[in-house]
Amino acid sequence: MKLKTGLLLSAMMFLQYYIWGAWYVTMGTYMGEVLKSSGVDVGAAYSAGAIATIISPFFVGMIADKFFAAQKIMGVLHLVGAALLYYATKVDNSSFYWVILVYSLLYMPTIALSNSVAFAQMTDPGKQFPWIRVFGTLGWIVAGLIISQLGIEKTAGTFHVAAVVSAVLGVISFVLPNTPPKGAGTKTDLGAILGKDAFVLLKEKSYLVFFIAAILICIPLSFYYGFANPFLNEIGLENVAGKMTMGQMSEAIFILAIPFLFNKIGVKKMLILGMSAWVLRYICFAHGTLDTSWMLYAGIILHGVCYDFFFVTGYMYTEKAAGETIKNAAQGLFTFATYGVGMFIGTWYSGFVVDQHKISDTQHAWTNIWLIPASIAGAVLIAFIIFFKEKTQERLMENR
To answer: What is the pLDDT of residue 191?
Structure first.
């Protein structure tokens, strides 16, 4: 891969996730402070991403992969998305959900499209892609730091920043390396889009237990994404958006340990460590205050363990269990189930819980709120320990 191509792809990934990080983390705070939204309203807005995750494979598989060059359709989606992000700041609470839903339906396909553009230019994706993708994590971190530095996380400014960057990426997309539609002239297979070939994995009890646990663990995950920023702002922590980037920093650090630990201690122990971190994180939030701020920081930093040791390990376990022939279908099914179905359930439920523990227009019983996802994560952890029996790839393949 040429240096110029590598730089373009790195810039693409940086901007792709900068956009998301600029508005997504602080949206709950903006809705509460400016739109006076309820917890259910906030949960609904975050569910838009889950709905888009469920629908986007159909868009990519049936339209983008068949009729358009990936970089061109990505450019159009980001340009239209920029207008929607700006428009989101001009509507009231009753319309905000619908604007975010439409925007999410445009943004989520660009994740797969950006990956397609990157992979198409690589001679050794296994070695080259991680170095390109890490710029996405850096983009998310830089977005949070800049939002915090500007002091706009409680304002419409977050959406304005995201809109500008979305427009920039939209323009840049048209000069990215050409990536022709890889499915041109082929017949659309809805079953393949849904990952039907991967359903054979669910016949194996060990993978089925993991699959159910992955869906359920997304419920406590939704509490963090939707309400960690409003919680930390409400209790008086300063520069929250910047401090929450420590979660992405820890994610980047802990991911380096995964290849070693995956073979050293095995899948089950890694997943147990990940789920245990979920419990600990929410206990820290439940009992953390400005006087014990180390607990708040611990809860943020544990995001790296929570995400990497469960979801990254989960993707690796899924690929290992699936084997070469159905690995793409299996990864699609795993994403559909977790960031689609699991997050959809979790976002709505978390909003309901927050409203049930509202004390006043500006105060919530956060200790009680955070103990709920801690309990859910704990229950999933215990069930996983009891029912999951780790098997080697060979044994998984034999049982199919």
So the answer is: 62
What residues contact 390, with CB distance under 8 A and at least 6 apart? 206, 266, 267, 268
Q: Phi, psi (5° rounding) for residue 364? A: -130, 155
Tell me which fold the domain 192-400 belongs to: Growth Hormone; Chain: A; (1.20.1250)
Distance, CA of 345 to CA of 351 (rounded, Å): 10
Do domains 1-179 and 192-400 share one topology? The answer is yes
Residue 58 CA to residue 63 CA, distance in Å, equals: 8
pLDDT, averaged across the chain: 87
CATH code of the domain occupying 1-179: 1.20.1250.20
CA distance 327 to 97: 35
Backbone angles phi, psi at 358, to 5 degrees: -85, 125
Give the DSSP letter string of 181-231. Answer: -TTTTSPP-HHHHHTGGGGGGGGSHHHHHHHHHHHHHHHHHHHHHHHHHHH
Q: Which residues have CB under 8 Å from 70's CB, separation 6+?
A: 64, 113, 116, 117, 120, 179, 181
Candidates 376, 319, 341, 347; CA nearest to 215 is 341
Q: Where are the domains of the chain?
A: 1-179, 192-400
What CA dihedral angle connects 197, 202, 203 and 206, to 10 degrees? 140
Alpha carbon distances (Å) from 222 to 52, 59, 315: 15, 25, 19
How many Cα atoms within 13 Å fall on the side-chain side of residue 340?
16
Burial of 240 (0-12, 13-18, 19+ CB in 10 A): buried
Q: Taking the CA atoms of 237, 238, 239 and 243 in sequence, report the sign of the dihedral they define.
A: negative
Q: What is the pLDDT of residues 43-91, one digit of tens each?
A: 999 999 999 988 877 766 566 666 778 889 899 999 999 999 999 999 9
Report pLDDT for 240.
92
What tokens were used for 68? 């358009």
**Predicted TM-score of the model (pTM):** 0.85
According to the model, what pLDDT value does residue 394 have? 46
